[in-house]
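Schema walk-through. Below, the input block comes first and the output block second. Nothing else is stored per chain. Lengths vary across the set, and this one has 433 residues.
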Amino acid sequence: MAITKRGFILGATTLASAAFVITGANLHISNGQAFFKESPKELVDEVWQLIDHEYVDDSFNAVDWNSVRSDYLNRTYTDQEEAYVAVREMLEQLEDPYTRFMDPEEFRNMQIDTSGELTGVGIQISQDEETNEIVVVAPIEDTPAFEAGLLSGDVIEFIDGQSTEGMDLSDAVNLIRGPVDSSVTLSVSREGEALDFDLARARIEIHPVRYSVEASDEGSVGYIRLTQFSANAAAEMKDAIESLEERDVTGYVLDLRSNPGGLLFSSIDIAQMWIEEGTIVSTVDRDATSDEEVAHNQALTDRPLVVLVDGGSASASEILSGALQDNDRAVLVGTQTFGKGLVQSVRGLADGSGVAVTIAKYLTPSGRDINELGIEPDYIVELSEEQRDELTEDRDKVGTLEDPQYAKAMEVLSDAIRSQRQSASSAGVADGE
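--- output ---
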């Protein structure tokens, strides 16, 4: 499977999504729509065919996939909703939470999530593959969920009093979303403690990159926080690096903590800004066909780099951090990342609905399969519950020396800056001999 389309999307979460690759989102064919209205069974077979041709596991979770087709095509469907229910039942047999059907509203929501603007509470959620619990991966900064104090790892037990037990991820998303200025109550479990969060929904415009110049013992340092790999992330990252280079910073801290992922090509474009040459990411499909993306001598800086990661750093964040780590371009500091190493293809269907199909897994440049494992930082810095609470209550401390993970990153970066200077000095002496 070649990574050739700029619609590839990765994300461990939903604002509403799992990890996606949009390959046919615009297939809204009028003749197909008219035919579908007369034959909902056509939709069932279309989804079956996509799974049959593309699903990453050619054993289909040890399910007789041909028998499944016979079963569902021998049924009678009177309307779209019955076909939707059948498709969801059919896909459940794969026991893959990332392969899922989206009705037209859900599919539109998924497309909105990558546009850089959305309406809701600003939270990314995922469904645990073993327990089926709805889990918070990360809140987006400066959103109702973020300001209220929701944290990565919170388990959503109730949404407006409705239990999430046995609930599909897409249903949870639809309950959480709603009109601007309306409210929703999320009841969560956090390390055994029950907490309620009353949230006002809002229109959220996402600016994924923030940067500043920070002082250090080794001179000024560029601090860049990337919150999501949305459509405008690469352009904003380029502006940030170029601006910081003009200010002659001595090194960089790139903060990917609580970054749930986003567009695959955003992560690749950003990796190109840091890596001069080498593999960025590779994918492997069910036929063991591998394809890779490589850096093309487009790096904007070669200054020392430290990357901050944690359990909320997922998917596209893991592609970028894995590429930087495997190419010895950066040192990682923080805690184990989320562990989302699967790729989905999202296909638009004739009636405006869509289906996400797991088609491949991705590997870091060294060939690591990080799915369900995550990436281990070079320096592990755990935060105590007290430290987490303190940073949550006072977000101005994040990215300062009162942030223990950032403080360690600055220590590591200072060592790297000194080492680079010593190497340059030694090279200068050798050249002069």
